[in-house]
Design a protein that fits this description.
496 residues; Penicillin V Acylase, Chain A; Peptidase_C45_hydrolase; 6-stranded antiparallel β-sheet; 38% helix; globular; single chain; 8-stranded mixed β-sheet; alpha+beta
Length: 496
């Protein structure tokens, strides 16, 4: 990979990239439009691969086995990656090293679905946090894809992403699992690739579950694959290289809701969960699960996007059953008590280092929530936040704590019209408050830019390059949405 030292700034808002056609064509379009994001992803991915295999030459040899499996199980993804390499001006080897899963597990990310009796109006609502250390996902744009064959879909952050929605109202989310046993680790597909494979080909959660199980589409390590649809069906597939098992609402006392963080809950999967002091850092997975679930329990029957946002952005943490952690020989900080705890237990920085990681957004020095999504699948509404809700804790220097709103539709023009309408509504709403601060000025500038690109896109509609113009327009309107609500009060008004 050629070295380029002119690193772009972290964007205020996740851009939006439209692609269409064959898998290769979509890859080329993405590579061209998101060249900077692809290069940043490659630098991070290759560095991780070299760290894992100790030498780049060894990593290059190893990746051939992974690519062979990819060609067998998901040739369309191989075509996509060849296209991305071509569009971004990179060697396919770089893409393979960067995007392939090398048995990595991580104690981060959360996802929730709620429906039926648990949810307001008995609708289905979904939400997730993506947490990472490398900050790569700050740069990756949202992708809306219109494949030649299959259902259109929106992927929150590039193509290898743990949050996807298709036009049928099918939601697919994922978080890393664990792989304590030797057989839990092996050659597998890249993390989260099962999500876009199912988004293109599956109409509902049942079909997606059966596809993943039948074709063994999980990665070479641990993963929780969370599937939900607008009809109120949901599953979590607890996956390792050795086996897949399905968890449903009711298996652990849930009623019409499901959650997943980074541990397995099915008894037969318990041996794959880590234990012992060496793995004490995985303790945070339990606290995040308990904290998110407790918000659902306390608001049962009223769960909506706002409640999911509160659960995933909670500034406290809940301790449900500390004996579980004791059995794993993990030492819980002395300040922690059963029930709700203040995040900064003990009030000191030392205490915060222990308890900050127990919050759903992972408020620690070395890792953070880098983006969040909230989804109303019946209406195909997709809300996205770049950075943490806790703006000062976010590693994104431009974090706003504001979600943008996109409605997944059947054409780039329809999507752009929806984000334009939402931008206009937000600007008007804030303007009525007689507050002409700098953020509102920025919103209006972005709004004008969106209209300019929209007009150019209409002039070039159905011509080569028009999707890129629609991408520019939609991205500008999303920026306008975010700036309009910047000073309205954190979490007070996100258009949910």
């Amino acid at each position: 990979m050629d070295q380029e030292h002119d690193i772009p700034e972290i964007p205020v808002t996740k851009g939006l990239v439209f692609v269409s056609g064959s898998w290769h064509q979509m890859g080329v379009q993405y590579g061209k439009q998101a060249k900077d994001a692809v290069r940043i992803k490659c630098a991070s991915g290759i560095a991780n691969a070299v760290d894992y295999w100790r030498r780049k030459g060894t990593a290059l040899e190893a990746v051939q086995e992974y690519q062979k499996l990819l060609e067998e199980k998901a040739p369309q993804i191989s075509m996509l990656w060849h296209g991305i390499a071509e569009g971004a001006g990179l060697d396919f080897t770089d893409i393979g090293l960067a995007y392939m899963d090398f048995r990595k597990t991580d104690m981060r990310c959360s996802n929730i679905s709620a429906w039926g009796q648990a949810a307001a109006g008995q609708k289905t609502y979904c939400g997730m946090n993506c947490d990472e250390k490398e900050l790569v996902n700050y740069y990756a744009p949202t992708v809306i894809a219109y494949p030649d064959c299959g259902y259109p879909f929106i992927s929150a952050s590039g193509f290898t992403c743990n949050c996807v929605l298709n036009t049928q109202g099918l939601v697919l989310m994922a978080s890393c699992g664990q792989n304590a046993m030797p057989e839990d680790v092996g050659v597998g597909l890249p993390n989260c690739i099962s999500l876009i494979l199912c988004a293109v080909s599956c109409k509902n959660a049942e079909a997606a579950k059966e596809k993943i199980l039948a074709e063994r589409l999980g990665p070479g390590g641990g993963e929780n694959i969370h599937i939900a649809d607008k009809g109120g069906k949901a599953f979590v597939i607890e996956h390792t290289a050795a086996r897949d098992m399905v968890r449903m609402a009711g298996d652990n006392g849930e009623k019409d809701y499901l959650l997943a963080t980074n541990h397995f809950m099915i008894p037969q999967m318990e041996s794959s969960n880590f234990f012992g002091q060496k793995h004490e850092e995985w303790m945070n997975s339990y606290f995040r699960y308990w904290s998110e679930e407790q918000v659902l329990v306390e608001n049962y029957g009223k769960i909506d996007l706002e409640l999911l946002n509160n659960a995933l952005g909670n500034r406290r943490f809940f301790a449900k059953d500390l004996s579980v952690l004791g059995k794993k020989r993990w030492k819980v900080p002395e300040a922690v008590r059963s029930g709700w705890n203040d995040l900064w237990g003990g009030g000191s920085q030392l205490a915060a280092r222990h308890t900050g990681k127990f919050s759903p957004e992972i408020r620690t020095a070395d890792a953070k929530c880098v983006f969040s999504a909230l989804i109303y699948p019946e209406r195909l509404e997709f809300y996205l936040l770049n950075g943490c809700r806790d703006k000062t804790m976010s590693m994104n220097p431009w974090a706003t704590g504001v979600f943008t709103k996109t409605i997944m539709a059947h054409s780039a023009r329809e999507v752009t019209e929806s984000v334009w309408e939402e931008a206009a509504r937000r600007i008007y709403e804030v303007s009525c408050m007689n507050d002409m601060g700098d953020s509102l000025k920025e919103a209006k500038l972005a709004y004008a830019e969106g209209i300019y690109w929209r007009n150019l896109a209409i002039c070039e509609e159905d011509c080569e390059g028009d999707l890129e113009l629609w991408s520019h327009s939609a991205s500008a309107f999303l920026k306008a949405q975010q700036y309009a609500f910047l000073n309205i009060g954190e979490g007070k008004c996100n258009g949910f």
